[in-house]
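Suppose you are handed a protein chain with no further information: no name, no annotation, nothing but its sequence. What can you learn? This example shows the usual starting point.
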Amino acid sequence: MIQLTEDQRKLVQEGNAIPVRDNGDDFVLIRRDLFEQLQRAEYDRSSWSADDLDLVREESVGLLDQFGKLP
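A reasonable first move is to predict its three-dimensional structure. Written in structure tokens, the prediction is:
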């Protein structure tokens, strides 16, 4: 069982995720109700299509251009 500080406990109760390191391994602590909500959420784990990748590329280039990061 891990011991949380009062600040960590408050953050978790408010719905925030808390990073935790144990023996060199990184974990994230969240409330059970949030974890269960994430488990119920449908997520498409299939490979990205060429069209999907093109859309992401276009959005990325647009954002880089918007913030003046393109040469």
